[in-house]
Design goal:
68 residues, mainly alpha, 3 helices
């Protein structure tokens, strides 16, 4: 059975090209943006909260298309 895909080991994709870890990272970015939006302490965090939420949402939309 030489030359078939059964006898060759599967290569793992790099971390930044795998769907599961990158989806988790995107959800964490969305969560951080949400916490930034509703904290009462620093106006700078509130200022960048929408941008953070938007970046996490776009990231999730892109990495959800990655192969398993």
């Amino acid at each position: 059975m030489s030359g078939t895909s059964l006898d060759t080991p599967r290569r793992r994709r790099p971390f930044f090209l795998r769907r599961g870890p990158m989806e988790n990272l995107a959800v964490m970015v969305i969560g951080i943006g949400f916490l930034m939006l509703f904290q009462p302490f620093l106006i700078e965090l509130y200022t960048y909260s929408f941008v953070t939420l938007l970046a996490g949402t776009f990231m999730f939309m892109i990495v959800s298309k990655f192969p398993e």
